[in-house]
Amino acid sequence: MPKFFIDSSCISQNSVTLYSDDFFHLCKSLRKTEGDFITVCDKKGFDYHTRIVHIENDCAKLEILEKYPSYTELPFDVHIFQAVPKGTKMEWIIQKNTELGVSSIIPFDSERCVSKLSGKEEKKITRWQKICDEAAKQSGRSTLPKIAKPLSFDEAVCALKQHDIYFVAYEGSLNHQLKEVLLSKAPVKSIAFMVGSEGGFSPQEAAIFDEMKIPTVTLGKRILRTETAAMAISSMIIYEIGDVNQTFN
């Protein structure tokens, strides 16, 4: 069933009104008509089972048949600090990790980034957020993950440490296994991890992780591409902790 994300201002008692892009998508792309059923989400964790009752020239009126909590979100937040890769790799990273359930993706600049941030990333952020929104709708999410404004390396390292569990994926790590880090604290509300660019982290950056006592983890004996690493970690987190582990509620 099609799913639409709406602002709470579109909800009035037992009805919902769709405007602009959502209205166009409903009527022109999906070719829905009066009497059809769709799901709408208020981006606050609630879904609404609705029926189209009236289609006007510029909006559609929906009747709310049922309101219920969405069960598609992880019981904890996952935040990815991703060094910006070249080309369209970031789009792939955003799409796939949104499908897996992450809460936000924070781009940052690293010493070995091929694609350097210019400080004028508004258009990129807008495009990345659109890709994220579309992936969230497709995968049945009940919240829209956020694509944050790009950070410098130093800013990203400081922000990383604000979460309950945090670590860096580093191929040179000899200190920690991912499972060990994930089970180091409970309960948790947020997990954050950092992934380097195509060239990985420089020795100077790795030294900073050590100085700031940020755990570095290995993902195995094989070196993963930057566009593979975040998705692999997100999947491992879900497998290790699970969507419904009550310890992490």
**Which structural class do you get from the secondary structure elements?**
alpha/beta
Shape label? elongated
Mean pLDDT equals: 89
Q: Determine the oligomeric state from the structure.
A: single chain
Identify the CATH class of the largest domain: Alpha Beta
Q: Termini distance?
A: 28 Å
Helix run count: 7
**Can you tell me the residue ranges where pLDDT is under 50 for at least 5 consecutive residues?**
245-249
Percent strand equals 25-35%
Q: If you consult CATH, what is the topology of the largest domain?
A: Alpha/beta knot
What letter string, H or E per element, gives the SSE order? Answer: EEEHEEEEHEHEHEEHEHEH
Number of domains: 2
The major beta sheet can be summarized as: 7 strands, parallel
Sequence-ordered SSE layout with sheet pairings:
Elements: E1 3-5, E2 11-12, E3 15-19, H1 20-29, E4 37-41, E5 46-55, E6 59-69, E7 77-83, H2 89-100, E8 104-108, H3 122-138, E9 146-147, H4 153-160, E10 165-169, E11 176-177, H5 178-182, E12 190-195, H6 203-211, E13 216-218, H7 226-241
Parallel strand pairs: 1-4, 7-8, 7-12, 8-9, 10-12, 10-13, 11-13
Antiparallel strand pairs: 2-3, 3-6, 4-5, 5-6
